Amino acid sequence: MVMLPRPSRVILLLLATTVMATADENEERRKPNIIVFLMDDVGMGDIGCFGNTTINTPNIDQLAKEGAKLTQHIAHPICTPSRAALMTGRYAIRSGMTSFHLMRVISFISAPAGLPSNETTIAEVAKDVGYSTALIGKWHLGFMCEKENECSDPNSQGFDYFYGLPLTNILDCGHGTVFEAWRRNFYTEVAVTMVVLALATFILFMYSMVRRRTLVAVVVASTSFYLFCLIMPKLIAVMNCVVVENHDVVEQPLSYTNLTQRHTQHALDFLEEHKNEPFLLVMSFLQAHTELYAEPYFHARSQHGVYGAAVEELDWSVGEIMGALHRMGVADDTFVYLTSDNGAHVEEFSLSGEKEGGSNGIYKGGKANCFEGGIRVPTIVRYPGIVPPESEVSEPTNIVDLLPTVVGLTGGQMPRDRVIDGKDMMPLLQGELGISPHEFMFLYCGGYIHGARYRPRKGNRLYKIVYTTANLVEGPHGTMGCFDSYPCRCEGPTTVNHDPPLVFELRSDPSETTPLDPTTPNIQEIIAKARAAVAEHQASIAPTPYQFAPTRLLPRFGDQPCCGTFPFCSCTEDHSTRFSYEDAKPDKAHKDWMRADTSKAS
Question: Is domain 38-173+245-429+548-587 in CATH 3.40.50.2300, yes or no?
Answer without folding.
Answer: no
